[in-house]
Amino acid sequence: RRALILGFAATAALSSIPAFGQDVPSSRQILRKLQAAPAIEIAPEQRMTVRQLKRRPNMRRIAPSIDIQGINFAFGSAAIARSERWKVENIAIALNTLLDDDPDRVILIEGHTDAVGSRASNQSLSEARAYSLKRDLGRYFGVPSYNLETGGYGEDFLIVPTPNENWRNRRVTIRDVTSLIAR
Q1: How many CB atoms lie under 10 A from the CB of residue 179?
Q2: What's the pTM?
Q3: Pairing mode, if any, of strands 107-111 and 148-152?
Q4: Roughly what angle, to the nearest 10 degrees, separates helices 119-141 and 85-101?
Q5: DSSP per residue, 94-110
Q6: Mean pLDDT, 10 residues at a time, over the chain (183 residues)?
Q7: Distance separating alpha carbons of residues 18 and 37, to the nearest angstrom
Q8: Cα Rg for the chain, rounded, in angstroms?
Q9: Which residues of 18-49 are buried (b: 16+ CB within 10 A; e: fewer)?
């Protein structure tokens, strides 16, 4: 009886801890996040180029976005494993739906790293992660590359503030920046 109670307690405790890579949003969840209204409406004369936007984190935060921590980038790698492709497919379904509604949308894919390694190598790695997702979205799922912009932010925007390795920081963020871009 005691073992049974301990077993239930252990199961309950473990179920509250997120498993590695468990947070994989569905295409519906991604779509809902990206279809949300921007945090602030930007007047047309305040809009900017994609290049300017990439350098302004305060402006990027206005855009509807979703962090995708579920794509498990190996430490020091930008490769998306074949076993992770179904996660990319969830993103592609959402993006293709958005682009069907408005073929002129601009989506920014941001790459991020943890804080291990040099700033320069983390910057390069984050750029490569963003590009890797863009490439796979087009190659395997037909998302038009001209709608996708990429940027890398290295270790600058950690979700878990630690100088150590943490998989939650190795992620991509998807933003619909259409409302912020001058056309």
Answers
A1: 16
A2: 0.84
A3: parallel
A4: 70
A5: HHHHHHHH-TT--EEEE
A6: 40 37 81 96 95 94 91 84 93 98 97 88 92 97 98 82 78 95 90
A7: 29
A8: 18
A9: eeeeeeebebeebbebbeeebeeebeeeebbe
CA 46, distance to chain mean position in Å, is 26
Nearest-angstrom CA–CA distance, 105 and 110: 16
* Tokens coding 101: 């509604």
Please name the residue that has the structure tokens 């490769």: 79
Q: Could you tell me the two tokens for 63?
A: 């855009």
* Spatial CB neighbours of 112, under 8 Å, sequence gap ≥ 6: 126, 129, 152, 153, 154, 155, 157, 158, 169, 170, 171, 172, 173
Q: What value, to the nearest 5°, has the Cα angle with vertex 152 and ends 150 and 157?
A: 125
The two three-digit tokens of residue 170, written as one number:
């190795």
Nearest to 133 by CA among 170, 78, 95, 96: 78
